[in-house]
Please model this.
Amino acid sequence: MGIVKISNELHEEVRKNSAVMERSINSQAEFWLKIGRLAEQNPTLTYEQILSREMKTQNVTQVRLINE
Model:
């Protein structure tokens, strides 16, 4: 485990988003780091495609609310 220094502005955005997503501040930052890393390594995938692949990797059942 390490320490990552971020700006006060980014920390505030992480804090606000963590409240909305009901995650700890550290969990929200870790989520963004993970998704950002995957996006850089897979630039042709959308955010939704990245999440879908991660959910499949973890055997999460996806529920569709819209007919596609």
Remarks:
- The helical segments are 8-21, 25-41, 47-57.
- The radius of gyration is 14 Å.
- The mean pLDDT is 93.
